[in-house]
Amino acid sequence: MACIFCRIAAGEIPANVVARGDGVLAFRDVNPQAPTHVLVIPTQHVPSSGHLPVSERAAVFGAVMQLAVEVAAQLGLAEPGYRLVVNTGVDGGQSVDHLHVHLLGGRRMHWPPG
What we know:
Layout: H1 4-9, E1 17-21, E2 24-28, E3 36-42, H2 54-74, E4 82-85, E5 101-105
């Protein structure tokens, strides 16, 4: 069975899609941790950042990050600022085994994050 993000990317599970790009998808998180919380994923299944073949890293990360920055601008977050987060593995806080970037904004972020 495909993971939940693969099923969202395939259109099998509805999501509040914010933007699409070539091989990437951005949609609102169903459990937002900030006023704006968007997830940006590659549409191909990649379990985590550590699972990308070296030959694909630049292209996949580039596409995901580019869409995240575009969505941040589209949602009016460019000037006040935003946070991009990639959790990897259990200790890193990754809860879905599919590479994804959290775009968080709409409030002041604190450091350290937790």
